[in-house]
Specification:
Oligomer: single chain
Bound molecules: adenosine-5'-diphosphate, magnesium ion
Distance between the termini: 33 Å
Strand order of the largest sheet: 3-4-2-5-1-6-7-8
Shape: globular
CATH topology: Rossmann fold
Number of strands: 8
CATH superfamily: P-loop containing nucleotide triphosphate hydrolases
Length: about 280
């Protein structure tokens, strides 16, 4: 059975495409068959993040009826992907609401364990068309308070999408400084479990420049280990982080405790909804 996972966020730049790409590659590392689709038709980045510049067809081609969607998945690094067109004129005539219909055909082909949808930010028509087609949604956020408000507001909308059965939150660019909101606070406020916690890792950006996603570029980087942890959690497989990762993380925690005390939020993290006027979800 194919699991369809939509990757969403309140705003752009929080790491949706990074999470989509590396989650797909990490699932591949566990032997899963993965299809990654660039559903951000207005500002597509997926092919670039995967390091591909020559592709034979796009999601736009399928949505414009030029080719059948079944012929659009292309192979890269052990996963299949469908890019979106970079040509603005390929947006003419596309109704994003048709996406669900195309996706159904890919699901019916039963070729994939996972289909991951990299969506547009926010809750506009483009993003909603994609999220409506997903069964599971992973909401990507950075660990700062205004973002939690986005999750809470978006949750109201996601709840109305009948096909969406499960929502979780992936925290990205985490440094575990005491000025950051904790995963357990986000979970407590939103009622959603945390499906991933990815460190702020400069190697992610170096990988982007090298056109190689971090899981391929530096498989032992902290963020790569965390992407594998996330994928293992989603796929329900056992994974034990290497010892070097566990030791480095313990050091980082101590260092952060010492150096970020002046802006500490660790007290209010326990009671953040009062302190920061966040409306707890009912
Ligand atoms: N964990 C991370 N650590 C450091 N930089 C990151 C991390 N995740 C993403 N980035 C960088 O942040 C920028 C935005 O990420 P991107 O995945 O394009 O966000 P979105 O798809 O939500 O717009 C990119 O330059 C990316 O390399
Ligand atoms: Mg993106």
């Amino acid at each position: 059975m194919t699991r369809v996972i939509g990757i969403a966020s309140g705003k752009g730049g929080v790491g949706k495409t990074t999470v989509s790409t590396n989650l797909a590659l990490a699932l591949r590392d566990f032997g899963k068959k993965v299809l990654l689709i660039d559903c951000n038709l207005s500002t597509p980045h997926l092919a670039y993040y995967l390091g591909v510049s020559n592709y034979k067809s796009t999601l736009n081609d399928a949505m414009l009826g030029k080719v059948g969607i079944e012929s659009t998945p292309q192979l890269k690094d052990g996963i299949k992907y469908i890019p979106a067109s970079l040509d603005l004129k390929d947006l003419n005539g596309i109704d994003t609401m048709d996406f669900k219909k195309h996706l159904k055909k890919l699901v019916a082909s039963d070729k994939f364990d996972y289909i991951i949808l990299d969506s547009a930010p926010g809750l506009g028509r483009e993003a909603l068309a994609v999220l409506d087609a997903a069964e599971e949604v992973i909401f990507v956020t950075t660990p700062f308070v205004p973002m939690v408000n986005d999750i809470i507001r978006s949750a109201e909308v996601l709840k109305k999408l009948k096909g969406v059965k499960g929502v979780s939150v992936a925290m990205n660019m985490v440094t575990e400084g005491s000025h950051e909101i904790f995963g357990r606070s986000i979970s407590g406020l939103t009622g959603f479990p945390i499906s991933g916690q990815i460190s702020y890792d400069q190697n992610v950006v170096y990988g982007l420049v090298a056109k190689s996603p971090i899981v391929n570029f530096k498989p032992n980087a902290a963020s790569s280990v965390e992407f594998r942890k996330m994928a293992a959690g989603i796929a329900g497989v056992d994974y034990k982080a290497p010892k070097s990762y566990t030791v480095k993380r313990a050091f980082r925690k101590v260092k952060n405790k010492i150096f970020s005390r002046s802006v500490s939020m660790s007290q209010s993290n326990e009671d953040i909804s009062d302190d920061l006027s966040i409306q707890k979800m009912k």
